[in-house]
Design brief:
- Helix content is 51%, strand content 13%.
- The protein has one domain: TIM Barrel (Alpha-Beta Barrel).
- The two termini are 18 Å apart.
- Helix 9 links the parallel strand 4 and strand 5.
- Helix 8 packs parallel to helix 9.
- It contains 17 helices and eight strands.
- It binds hypoxanthine (HPA) and zinc ion (ZN).
- Zinc ion binds next to loops.
């Protein structure tokens, strides 16, 4: 017997980790106006509706063409703090108890904003989340793959004084003609410096399956962001299963940059025992935070509450928490499931 809480309420309240979230992708139009006013910046759009009208994406490239210019309003450490803090409060309201957040320092340093403003502001919000919201928050530094490998390496060097604030490194931005192998030396150095590794393998890119092969066999990542094209290769699916690697999927985002949520791939991989997780990617642009992504996928693919519980468990299993902390969070999910009358398959 399940209780009478609706599916959406069940999904939103489920304790979960978010593992694929770009802080710069949480910039809501209202905050954009506030930061523009604070920094004396004149924006082309004058209303929230005008800003949203520019969110006309058909693929990754057209999304990125809106995403980067919007960041111009972020300048001081307070601005970065306010952005992350707004996200963390929203995430907490949707059941997030742990988050590993991407940030794109090169998108800021390349326009003259000091690295320390970026990391200082984000870190202050992460610490505050722990004390005021009970949300544990870590940062993942992402390199922009359409910049050079040399620029990535110098950014890695710039980050070293702050290494205790950064759990790992990732790779994002435009994948076309920018394969993982371009960054092999940077990621080898990052590994040697003690960072965990992840990389985006975006949906339906030219060379998607070759890029997935590279991240698994050349870079040897600890996780893959998106990566659902892996279904094209049973050998690579077997490899991620064998290594217990997580895939950070983003169904609502997928439906903006392709024609589908890729629910068949996500659910199929989950049923095969791959640690797929559900995340929001760039929620201010795609109109759904992580809990909303659980609801959207569940409604679209007809998932049960037990399936949602599995996704929440996966989110902790694929996280970069210590095994003891993972186990504690998984127990919290199990308690939530039990208190809502959901039996777990063991
Ligand atoms: N893919 C690549 N780059 C990005 C993304 C993404 O999902 N979100 C923000 N930058
Ligand atoms: Zn992403």
């Amino acid at each position: 017997m399940t209780d009478d809480v609706g599916l959406a309420e069940f999904a939103l309240g489920l304790p979960k980790a978010e593992l694929h979230l770009h802080l710069e992708g949480t910039l809501e139009p209202e905050l954009k106006f506030e930061l523009a006013a604070r920094n004396g910046i004149e924006l082309a759009e004058k209303t929230v509706a005008e800003v949203r009208a520019t969110y006309d994406f058909t693929d990754l490239t057209s999304f990125l063409a809106v995403y980067y210019p919007a960041m111009g309003v972020l300048q001081t450490a307070d601005d970065f703090h306010d952005l992350a803090w707004a996200y963390l409060q929203k995430a907490a309201s949707q059941g997030v108890v742990h988050v590993e957040m991407f940030f794109d320092p090169q998108a800021h340093t390349s326009r003259g904003v000091p690295f320390e403003n970026v990391i200082g502001g984000y870190r202050r919000a992460a610490v505050r989340a722990e004390t005021e919201l009970g949300v544990s928050a870590e940062l993942i530094l992402c390199f922009l793959r359409d910049f050079s490998a040399e620029h990535a390496m110098s950014t890695l060097m710039e980050a070293l004084p702050y290494r205790r604030w950064i759990v790992g490194v990732g790779l994002d931005s435009d994948e076309r003609d920018n394969p993982p192998s371009k960054f092999a030396d940077v990621f080898a150095r990052a590994r040697a410096e003690g960072f965990l590794l992840t990389m985006h393998c975006d949906i339906d890119q030219p060379g998607s399956i070759e890029h997935i092969r590279q991240v698994l066999t050349e870079i040897e990542v600890d996780r893959i962001d998106h990566g659902t094209n892996i279904v094209e290769s049973p050998e690579l699916v077997a490899l991620v299963k064998e290594r217990g690697l997580g895939l950070t999927c983003c169904p609502v985002s997928n439906s903006f940059v392709t024609e589908q949520m890729k629910s068949d791939e996500i659910v199929g991989l989950m049923r095969e025992g791959v640690a797929v997780t559900v995340n929001s990617d760039d929620p201010a642009y795609f109109g759904g935070y992580v809990g909303d992504n659980y609801v959207a996928l569940a409604e679209h693919a007809g998932l049960s509450r037990a399936d949602l519980v599995q996704l929440a468990i996966n989110s902790f299993q694929a996280s970069w928490l210590t095994p003891a902390r993972r186990a504690a969070y998984v127990a919290q999910v199990a308690d939530y499931a039990a208190s809502h009358g959901v039996a777990l398959e063991v």
